[in-house]
Amino acid sequence: MTLTLKLKQNYKAYLLIGYAFLLIVHFILKDHIFPLSIVFYAFPVPILILSGLFLVLLFFRRKVYRFSILALVILLSLHWLQDYYMSSKIENSKDTSKILFWNLAKRKQLSVSYLSKQVNTYQPEILAFVEAPHTTLKNLDSLKKALPNYKFMPLKGAMLVAAKHDIELLEFSILEDAYKINLLEINTKDSKLKLIITDLTANILVNKKNPLAFVSNVAKNNNVDLVVGDFNTPYESVFFETYKNDFTSFHEYTNGFTATWPLGIPLFELDHIWLANRHSPQSLIKYYNDASDHALLISEFIIDQ
């Protein structure tokens, strides 16, 4: 019997073994081990659910397999809804602050009307953007006119920040195909906040351990209040565990699915906002617009004086 014939006869068994391997990687190994982390990043829970449904159809005539896999798919779906669909209670408070973060995905120009609408509605103290090269900022003057109460500062690493009060750039760090970080101090109405805006590589062939650790160390060593950015790494990554010692993610304060990419599809949670533990997160609101395939994030929090 040839190898090709054996493969044809046993392909269903191999598919089951492969599916079990994907589950082990996602829930046990995660991204501890590189390059197995590539599998972890490539197969989020929604993909595992769809893959399971495919196996249900493949084994439809075999009752035991069909119902066993279907039960597993149901458990995965419940897990997904429980961990990735949030409904946070928004408490109206006059003392809250807000930050707007958006990955512009290197679009041809700023979406002035859409941005000004969201800013005028929520009145965030800080606006932060990544993937905003000079070609995207060619109509920045139009945005400045639409939002005259904000001071804008283009940053290295194709980033942009704006605030209602003074902005000071403290440090810029870059490592090609790893990370770009801007560390800033921004005045607010009642205090000063230290902010990191970061954009990590989207290359899944790069081990995310060191870039994520570098951002965490800069934040900790500089007593940063907020870390925002496109981390190109899902929230369940093991490398975010060190962040939780000093920061709180807005993951659990989201309204709706926590995924931020791609456009309108709850698949990957790549864009994150982390708030220092001394402050109090309140809520995270997401909006999708075809001006970018990333969600626009607006987080609300209370600053501990």
Short description:
With 305 residues, the protein is of the alpha+beta class. Helices cover 33% and strands 30% of the residues.
> What spatial form do the alpha-carbon principal axes imply?
elongated
Rg calc:
22 Å
Instruction: State the end-to-end CA separation.
Output: 75 Å
User: Helix tally?
Assistant: 7
Helix content: 25-40%
- Helix/strand-derived class? alpha+beta
Mean pLDDT: 94
List unreliable stretches of 5+ residues.
none
What fraction of the residues are assigned to beta strands by DSSP?
A: 25-35%
| H and E order | HHHHEEHEHEEEEEHEEEEEE
**What is the strand arrangement across the widest sheet?**
4-5-3-2-14-13
**How many E strands?**
14
Largest beta-sheet details: 6 strands, mixed
Write the layout of secondary structure elements.
Blueprint: H1 3-29, H2 36-42, H3 45-58, H4 63-84, E1 85-87, E2 96-103, H5 112-122, E3 126-130, H6 140-146, E4 151-155, E5 159-163, E6 167-175, E7 179-187, E8 192-200, H7 209-221, E9 226-230, E10 247-249, E11 255-257, E12 271-276, E13 280-289, E14 292-302
Parallel strand pairs: 2-3, 8-9
Antiparallel strand pairs: 1-11, 2-14, 3-5, 4-5, 6-7, 7-8, 9-12, 10-12, 13-14
Helix pairs in contact: 1-2, 1-3, 3-4, 5-6
